[in-house]
Specification:
single chain, alpha+beta, endopeptidase fold (from Nostoc punctiforme), 2 domains, two-stranded antiparallel sheet
Length: about 180
Amino acid sequence: MRISSLQKKLLLHAALYSMLLCWMAGCHVLHHAGSKGAAEPESGRVAQLRTEVTAYAQQHQGVRYTPAGKTPASGFDCSGFTSYVMQRFGIRLSASARDQATQGRPQMLEKAKPGDLVFFRRSPSEPIFHVAMVLSNNHKGLFIIHSTTSRGVVVDNLLQSTYWKPKIDSVRDVILGR
């Protein structure tokens, strides 16, 4: 069977058209995957939520530490602070840092975003004992806000902290990972 030049052109156009449709469908799929936390940039709505979460968290800077504390009036422990802040935005977290460390989706420390949670262990064989919330992650450092036993709710540059940095265990995205 012999293919005429017109048939070749039609086949070529059909192939190019099919490739264009596949490419467009791929972009559409990637766009939706990006809104669910893939490598694509986050939507403006998610970025705005992250900004609002961290701004609200910072309003509680200076609140005293209280064991098992869950409100600004009573004081906060670390997980009480993170769950209190997230609850304001409809994100439900467990009561303990150990349980919060299983919520959301894993995130690499280098890619931690505002509102992500950072978890800490004293050693690899010990359980999670502390949680903090990322405020920013840029060339100046990785800034977290957390409720500490000695200082209450404070902001620290995690990467410059000789106490906290060696205890970093994991990061979870509880905003997109819910």
